[in-house]
Amino acid sequence: MTPRARPLVFGNWKMHMTASEAEAHVRSLLPRLASLSDRDVALAPPYTALWAVAALLRGSAVRLAAQDLFWEDEGPYTGEISGVMLQECGVTYVLVAHSERRRLLEETDRAAGLKVRAALRSGLRPILCVGEDEAERAAGRAASVVRSQLALALEGTARAEASRLQIAYEPVWAIGTGHAATAAQASEMHLLVRRELRVLFGDAASEVRILYGGSVTPQNVDELMATQGVDGVLVGGASLKVEEFARIAAFRALP
Ligand code: PGA
């Protein structure tokens, strides 16, 4: 059995917090994360708060993340932000194709692929989000949907780059609903993701961390993190509350 990957706890703030709110939040959160040395923690504020949060995180082990990027490095793309720009802000991780962007902004698997490659090219660590919706699960299509999202978005990503990639399995029906996947559902899907990664990347697949996202709370994080195949969590709503996120980040280290 391969040794367990270093866990990653990721806070996705979505479109919440102005720069000054973000500063106050991070000032109160950081001391509560200081003793966590056996896991990675990252925060993804909105673009407008990146500089402010970067300044506060300097010197700490907590990493800065972004919620999206564009697939070109610069040019006539009004409103877009490139990986190069994020890199200069001190960003380490970047989410790609979160389900809210797939659903509300019609982001495609092809765009996801371009963004994964742009992130890697810019020296960032992409977190590709995949997951089925309620109707797809009800129709027994969860596995085929996720397999196809992975294959389409990761086509063209080299094996040598796999160690910088993360996948977030986020069933759409669990996001913001208070109904997290059960340990059995998460385990089944994470093992499926791992198998698909092996097809794409061979042995290098073992270096890819697979996070679970969707209604992660202080109450369910210990069980989720003890679930086979779960290397971390992607936290939305609960990442906006200092005490809740601190407790999630401090999930009990399990065998
Ligand atoms: P949630 O969101 O924790 O509020 O369900 C997770 C996500 O969208 O990444």
Overall number of strands: 8
Order of helices and strands: EHEHEHEHHEHHEHEHEH
Q: Given the structure, what is the number of helices? A: 10
What ions, cofactors and ligands are bound?
2-phosphoglycolic acid
Characterise the protein shown here:
With 255 residues, this protein is of the alpha/beta class. Helix content is 39%, strand content 15%. The chain has ten helices and eight strands. It has an eight-stranded parallel β-barrel, surrounded by six helices. Strand 7, helix 9 and strand 8 form a beta-alpha-beta unit. It is globular and about 45 Å long. It starts with 7 loop residues before the first strand and ends in a 6-residue tail after the last helix. The structure holds 2-phosphoglycolic acid. The site of 2-phosphoglycolic acid has 13 residues, from strand 8.
Summary, kept brief:
With 255 residues, this protein is an alpha/beta fold. Helices cover 39% and strands 15% of the residues. Helix 1 (19-33) crosses helix 10, helix 5 packs across helix 7 and helix 7 runs parallel beside helix 8 (183-201).
Strands, helices and their partners?
Layout: E1 8-12, H1 19-33, E2 40-44, H2 50-57, E3 63-66, H3 83-89, E4 91-96, H4 99-104, H5 109-121, E5 125-130, H6 134-138, H7 142-154, E6 166-169, H8 183-201, E7 209-213, H9 221-225, E8 232-235, H10 242-249
Parallel strand pairs: 1-2, 1-8, 2-3, 3-4, 4-5, 5-6, 6-7, 7-8
Features:
alpha/beta, 8-stranded parallel barrel, binds 2-phosphoglycolic acid, globular
